[in-house]
Amino acid sequence: MKQELTESPVPGGIYLCQVSEDVSCAACCGLYNAADCSPTGLQKMLADRSERFARLSRNAESIVDFGRQVKSSQLQNRPWDDFHHCPFIGLIGENRQRVGCLLHPLAAGNMGVDYRGLSHYGGMACRQYFCPSYRDLTADIKTVIQHLAANWYEYGLMVTEAVLLGSMVSEIEKRLGAPVHLRDVLDSPAGPRVLREVMFLKIDWPYRQGDGKGLCHYFFTDRRYVREPVDYAAAGRHPVGFETIFAELTSGFRTSDELHCAERRLEILFRQAADAVRCRSL
């Protein structure tokens, strides 16, 4: 799949969808728009779906019927009703270790036949669409996210967070007093560990609103679903900075102590990242 797209330029110059045997992204296909978007929940759902598809006869009628069955059995109670979750997202690759399109001509069992025209948006959209992160993320951030991601689950959650990632890098630069080149920090002693804590902060953020949409992110430019500003009434004050980051993390604070702890956590992380950059520069 990767080879097919590298034959022509992609926006931003770095291909984001399929990275390695373990790392890939299907967020634009609605991967995380599921009732249970936990790692175990999605892994179980996709493994079951992929196994069923592997036994499927490759003809239009069988494939369309498969899509209907998946929708009725696996795609109820999604966080975003109007954000399509493609029933043909599955686990692909030699050992089914990353997410991808079960209809792709290079997917197992398809014998080079492109079945993507049977999907909701059709084959042309699947071949030509590139998410906003291709254009909005810097090459530096893209490279670091791809290097640090351990698996498809966390990669897809973060590579679509252009506003959040950009805001966090800006906070590091404020403390450093200079532009940050994250790739240069990867070979410093503490660099990878600290950058990973910053880059993947969203995944274990303890202050996510209970009534929010969980980890799912609607990142398309039509802005049908936007993240609302944080209600700081319970905390009794606004934060000193970090408003954008807290909003992008869909935060909710029940007390002033919670807000203080969240501010402190971010401050420590950004200072550690700035220190890692300084160490690399020495």
Account of the 3D structure:
The structure is a single chain. The protein has two domains: 11-134, no CATH class; 161-281, no CATH class. It is 43% helix and 3% strand. The protein contains eleven helices and two strands. A two-stranded antiparallel sheet has the order 1-2. Helix 8 crosses helix 11 and helix 9 runs antiparallel to helix 11.
Secondary-structure topology with pairs:
Layout: H1 2-6, H2 39-54, H3 60-74, E1 89-92, E2 98-101, H4 122-128, H5 133-136, H6 139-148, H7 152-159, H8 162-176, H9 191-199, H10 243-248, H11 256-281
Antiparallel strand pairs: 1-2
Helix pairs in contact: 8-11, 9-11
Strand content: under 5%
Largest sheet: 2 strands, antiparallel
Shape: globular
Radius of gyration: 20 Å
What number of domains? 2
Low-confidence stretches: 1-8
Count of helical stretches:
11
Please give the alpha-carbon distance between the first and last residues.
41 Å
Order of helical and strand elements: HHHEEHHHHHHHH
Quick summary:
Helices cover 43% and strands 3% of the residues. With 282 residues, it is mainly alpha-helical.
Kindly list the characteristics that best describe this protein.
globular; 11 helices; about 45% helix; mainly alpha; 2 domains; two-stranded antiparallel ribbon; about 280 residues; 2 strands; single chain; disordered N terminus
